[in-house]
Amino acid sequence: MKRTGKAIFAAILIGLGIGTSVYAEPSVNYKNIKVKGYLYSYEVGTFTNKNKAFEFILNLPENLRKSAYLYQIGNKYSVRIFLATSPSILTVYKPILKALNLPVKVVKTPDIFLYSIQLITATKRDAAERLYKRLPPEIKKEAFIYKTDSGYYTVRVFLARTRKEAKKLQKKLTFLPIKTVIVPTSPTKLGLEKQQEKLEKKPKELVPSSIPIIKAPIVPGKKAEVIIQAVPPTVKEKVKKIKLKEIQTPIVQSPENKTLSEFKIQKKLKKIVLSSEKLIKGNKTKAIRTKTSGEVVVPKKEPYKAGEIEFSSLLPLIDRTVNLYAQWQYNTVYKDGDRSSFFNENYNFNTPGEVTDGIKYLISVGYSKYHTDVDTWQSTFRPALNTRLTNDLFNLSSSISLINTKTSSGYNGKNKNYELIFSSAWNPKYPYISAAVSKNSVSSDDINSDTYSRRFSTGYTYKRNLTLGYSYTHSKTEDHVRDVFSETTNHNANISVRKAFFNGKIYLSAIESIYYSDNRYSLKSVNGYYYKKVYPVTGLSGIDTSPSIGTLTPNALLTDGDYNTSAGINLQTPYENIAINTDYQPVDLITLYIGGNLTTTDISTLQWDLYTSSDGNVWNIVATNVPFTYDNQTETLNFVLPQRIEDNYIKLVLTSTGATNIGYVTEVEAYEKVANATTVINDSSTHGDTTRVGIRIKLPLNLGYSFQYERTGRDGEEISSKFSHNLSGMWRYRYIQIGAGAGRTDYFIKDQDTRSSQRANIDIKAKPLNTLSLRAGTGYIENFINYDKTSTSFIISTGLNARIFTGLNAGLSNDIVKTTNEETNTSATSYNTKLNINAKLFPSLLVSSSIQHNVSSTTTDIYSVSSTWTPSEILRLTISEGYISRENDKNSSTTNISLSIVPRGGDIRYSVSMASSNGKESYSGNVFWQVSEYFTANSYLRYTPSDDSVSTGATVNARW
């Protein structure tokens, strides 16, 4: 658990600009700043000139620049990246630096930071000042603008000595509509060193207001107002004694920290009194300083009297915040002399709070109603309750939610969800336990289904070398209307061993995994035929304009059984690639589950191509414009494949889309056709095991070898096995890196031919100049059936990226793939060339363009150019043009022009835009008004000449 906390802390620091030394200011003086320990970073460069070091930071990629800072060592300035509490955490980011040819030297950085709560990060100071001016007066007094070494401007609130103290102060900001994070803050940038020098000259002078303050009210004899300041060590040495005396008049409450709840103040007061008593009993004294009187007295606590017990009500002890949000939206459309309009109202209420430090809750209620001008409506009521119990042993959280939807036509649908989650929080030296149960019920006039799920997992790690794990999941879905169901039970166990020898020069690892799955489900019926589900499959996705070559990213959301959450695939974006890995199982039908608000017209504009692959890199096209059917009830796209496919990978590519409404893919499933189905229920079990062994050797030449063996059985009988061998090597010398690899995979499938694949590749990367990087690679793949060669693929890939001069960057890539069918002695070659140019012609004018030429079964050319002109701080003009030329004359083009005007102050913003897609133009204008801290208004006007329609609308948002 501790390591998890460190990883989260490091992840937060990655996205923030953090500085330990001030740009154009002297570095930290450790005589006055206490070093609390050490943090760890990567040193990527050293300079004797501070300006050159700062320029080096500005030229870093965005994700590294935000986490970079300067550190002064004598007369040298060290550029460092990332901050972590342990060197082992930094290893996660090592590949990022290696990919950019940056050094990976781990260095220590003294932990002299204060900690603040960051509200926003901006590239310009004006944007940071606008938020700073809009802060409530109570928060504004504690806020400040902080410039990081990487050139970003941040708005931060409060200062604390430790992150734990800052976390308590962060709770005061829950009412702000901003996600806040805790960040380290350099004391030198705040002038703390100079302020400490003043304190040494004037011992009676109060601690500066920038030092964090904790307040607690006290009344004479019973309570008093005490302000404890986290003073620097030099001040603490001067204040060692406390003089107890009677307080005759209460101290006036300072308005600085009014956002603290009364309950938190009482708790802190109790801690102060108890700690004071312990000091008095031990004949120790301590001074408590304030802004107004310098020293105050904590009166001695009255002894308890027998028989006198004071009770307090529970309600005042509950710390809570109330958030209200409301939205009103009105739209009207004029088309062909007819007028249609609608009004939408949306309200949300939530109150997060805590009964104690370990018991927290969130109550939320939402309501929305959609009205049309034909007296139809739809309303949604959304109450929810979330609770969380945390302690040193375990965490227990629960959630209950309801979505009740009603319409004017009489529809009444309910979606109920219950969930309970338990996770251990005890010492990591003991095995961890995690468990959860949930139920989801959907009911309406034509739907009545229940989904039950439960899961359990446990594991144990011994000295980071031995890991044991076990997990169990069970889910069951019953559709009482269509009388179908699906039930799945999974058991997984694994053991892994890893060990490093000779100071990390040799690293060995071994993993053994065993699984058992029991599946019972109703067969799927499409066009009068029954299909059984193919299991297991894994999903992959990505946007690829050259689908004949290239790997896709694994996407677990495509096969996680969640049919409501988007898997990140937008059906309004061309060249979305959706693939499944079936391990050569036969597939006759692919089903895509979709979400959003697509109409039948939107769906009719979708066009898909079908590809297969044995290695997931080189793809062969099977069919273009694959037909599919749409099931409105289940919201699925069903693709009956033109032929049964028994390949390792199957891919669908969205080549064309004209959807105007939002649509996305939530899940993908594969099915095999059942020839003679005697029952509509399928019951089968799947079991298997996987063995992985690997070795890595770090020498001047880095070598690696891995072996993997997988077995899969069904209903007690082994049906497939797979052997994989992979060998890799890499050599790096100054500006050049050479990598090579080879591998072979053999598939043995019952009642099918043996399939094999072997491959080899060489990749070369070079960076002879800081402004020039080159790459070249080649690969060769052979496929076999029953050890007879069936096909070969030869790949050549080259590319370069160059910064021609400051403000002008260019990139060129070329890919050639030649595939040969050894059985028919025919071959096909595909080419892909892409040129990118980004230019900053003037400080106010940015231009980017790209040209791509694809040659495969058809020839496709893709052109795009965009420019942004910012002649002043209040005016921005953006123009983009895209054109796709296809060999079959199915060309398409898009044009977008937008002009935005932001007057000084930023309370009112205007924008106008023009868009054109395939000859259909539209014009629109928008006005945004920040009425106050709690109200915003937004209105628009849109005109489409192609169908002679005008639409206008306004939205008002309120937040308290």
TrEMBL record:
<dbReference type="GO" id="GO:0042834">
    <property type="term" value="F:peptidoglycan binding"/>
</dbReference>
<protein>
    <recommendedName>
        <fullName>SPOR domain-containing protein</fullName>
    </recommendedName>
</protein>
<dbReference type="InterPro" id="IPR036680">
    <property type="entry name" value="SPOR-like_sf"/>
</dbReference>
